Protein: Serine--pyruvate aminotransferase
Organism: Alishewanella tabrizica
Amino acid sequence: MIPAPVIAAFHPPRRTLLGPGPSDVSPQVLAAQSKPIIGHLDPLFVGMMDEVKALLQYAFQTRNEMTLAISAPGSAGMEACFVNLVEPGEKVIVCRNGVFGDRMRQNVERCGGIAVTVDHAWGEPVDPAAVAAALAAHPDARFLAFVHAETSTGALSDAKALCALAKQHQCLSIVDAVTSLGGVELRVDEWGIDAIYSGSQKCLSCVPGLAPVSFSAAAVAKIKQRKTPVQSWFLDQSLVMSYWSGGAKRAYHHTAPVNALYALHEALRMLANEGLEQAWARHKAMHLLLRNGLDALGVQFVVAEPYRLPQLNTVYIPPGIDDVAVRSRLLQQYNLEIGAGLGDFAGKAWRIGLMGYGARQENIALCLHALQQELSVVI
Ligand SMILES: *Cc1c(COP(=O)(O)O)cnc(C)c1O
């Protein structure tokens, strides 16, 4: 017999998470997650899921019936939107201004769709004029897909204008709101967004592993008209929906991550208690505080001021500074995590996240103090 390994219990340190996610989770949300587990078909749990749905409708600002949290991370939310909506041979205009736009393209192609990309330099928002030209050049396109808040670059795109363009050209819009939900203005119904997905671990400050999604009536109609079955059984929304809205008649589809949903319930309740507009304003105010401090340190932002995401601050690593050494000292000496650059920005930029519960004054003070120490030491 192979002997059992002797391994000590895992005790993670208490870090301050100012990266691109997961963000800091409040003690209140962590406590919710450690409450006793009950069955996922227990009437009390079914009632709690109904409340999660209502709270998600508030966070998304939508009355969409098909609003729920997929039991998997944000990437599964992305995949759910594409596999349910895009059928083989259908054309999708995909905006690329960072890592996640390119993942959308890969999703389209794996669904057998035809992706027409509208490319931008990293750090730029999506240009509505370029999108309008692509829509005009491809009258057979069925969808417009873009990332609202590009976490790889820190750029915010004008979702309202882009969704209006999609409508003008009879396209359904597919929007990545993984980093935007809860952090910046987002109004699903008012802006006419057809399919949207997010993640629990960014501005909602919940534990990772859940992907809020919402589909408009037009998106649901498109799914119902499919000629081919959705190739993913797990992500087929017509099956998942009967689980989320079956009420007392709810039937088994998969086992919901019961305790993670307790955490999401609590995180969304905290957001509702603060108020969505107040949460957006808090992210903005904290961003300005950080920006003032970084300006004083001479650290430069990548994104032009009007398009900066308050919750994800991408800054150039000052010349002569060792990226990996500084980030590892922040972690070792200050228990502070900031994000590395991704893709084109690897080794060139840092990403300082101020997401959800992390967007607090004391965290900004710690971050500025630590950076000031580190940058002066190395120079
Ligand atoms: C984090 C992120 C994702 C992926 O979410 P996971 O939970 O890591 O799967 C997708 N899009 C954007 C914009 C993100 O920031």
